[in-house]
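Dear support,

I submitted the protein below through the web form. The confirmation email said the job was done, but the results page showed an empty box. After a refresh the structure appeared. I'm attaching both so you can tell me whether what I see now is the final result or a partial one.
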Amino acid sequence: MAEIVNLRRARKAKARSEREAAAAENRILHGLPGAVRSAEAARRERADQVLDGHRLAEAGGSEDGPSSRRTDAIEDAGSRRDTESSS
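What the results page shows now:
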């Protein structure tokens, strides 16, 4: 004898599995929840600030920090030597 199936339960189970599949696709498409994204962005920003705080000088030398002043002094001393030796 065949098993009796409650059609209402079967229909609800099928709809539930379809919703779960759509939710899985949306999780893949849309990624993390907004709260997690903003917390991660704040953590990343704080880490960048800490890293920038420990930096000695910019690589381009555009910053007027102690190291750029030091290199300016070395270049000035070199140019003074050049002018003194030529006169």
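Response: this is the final, complete result; the empty box was a page-load delay. The chain has a mean pLDDT of 81.
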